Fold:
Amino acid sequence: QVQLVESGGGLVQAGDSLRLSCVFWGRTFSNYVIGWFRQAPGKERELVAAITSGGGGTIYDVDSVKGRFTISRDNAKNTVYLEMNSLKPEDTANYYCAAQHISTSTYDYWGQGTQVTVSS
Structure:
């Protein structure tokens, strides 16, 4: 069974940076695409960024984070990171990581989330 645990969230001021971590357990990490999602109160969950199993490909699905957020992975540590710079109040949300096996098209495993709050 796959388990995902996020960490690194917190309360910061606008313009600050945070690095979120997602640690993966239970299966062969390099067989999974990992995505970072976020959900703000009253809003739908959205995919922020994703990284391919080998780390060679990334996507950023939210225009407002392009150039500010960077997703990366360390397959030796079974960990995916989301580096978030120049944070804005609208980045406030609960951030989740999720895993998608390379043979499927859905994210089947989810972490519990880590809260990011950006004050103005």
Remarks:
- The first strand starts at residue 3 and ends at 7.
